[in-house]
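Please decode residue identities from the backbone states below.
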């Protein structure tokens, strides 16, 4: 058997998203997330998109627990792209998912920084308090 080896400089970016709107809103499913990502990829076009990996995860903070997902992209050697293209794709996908699934916050881990996108209507705690309400106290 013959084979070819293709190599790229390592690049991976990951989006972390919860599974419900705000902290107490309705849950959304893996199928809904997958469809939203697929539609986003289709709208953006293959020249700026890469395949993504969706992995279930669980967030735990004190007395709060929420299931969610890690969405990752790598510089896939078969469809290599400049790292800035992958960075911009993941940032734009994060913004799209923040709005589409009414998230409080989404974190995006890039090789050299972590970016947190926060909704203007973000709740500050899982008990339903919003940033605006807590600032008026």
């Amino acid at each position: 058997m013959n084979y070819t080896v293709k190599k790229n400089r390592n690049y991976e970016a990951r989006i972390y998203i919860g599974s419900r709107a705000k902290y107490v809103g309705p849950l959304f499913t893996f199928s809904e997330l997958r469809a939203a990502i697929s539609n986003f990829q289709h709208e953006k076009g293959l020249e700026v998109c890469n395949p993504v990996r969706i992995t279930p995860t669980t967030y735990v903070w004190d007395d709060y627990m929420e299931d969610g997902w890690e969405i990752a992209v790598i510089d896939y050697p078969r469809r290599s792209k400049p790292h800035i293209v992958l960075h911009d794709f993941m940032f734009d996908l994060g913004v799209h998912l923040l709005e589409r699934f009414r998230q409080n916050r989404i974190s995006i881990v890039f090789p050299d920084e972590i970016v947190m996108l926060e909704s203007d209507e973000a709740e500050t705690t899982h008990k339903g308090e919003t940033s605006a309400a807590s600032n008026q106290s």
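Observation: The mean pLDDT is 89.
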